[in-house]
Amino acid sequence: MFRITYFAFFLVSYLNGIYYVIVHINYILNKLNVTCGKIYEKGTFYKVGS
Predict the structure, then answer these.
(1) Which stretches are transmembrane (predicted)?
(2) Gap between the Cα atoms of 33 and 40, Å rounded
(3) Greatest extent of the chain over all pairs of C-alpha atoms, in Å
């Protein structure tokens, strides 16, 4: 009985860790996307301007 609860707890924390990592990576990718998007927009804007 104790072993099962321990395993369940381990599984939950393990999945929680994976979820946190995925969310964190998603956040970083979004940040990069926004930054690259702004740089890209500026570049095209300057090209159009000149």
Answers:
(1) 6-29
(2) 10
(3) 73
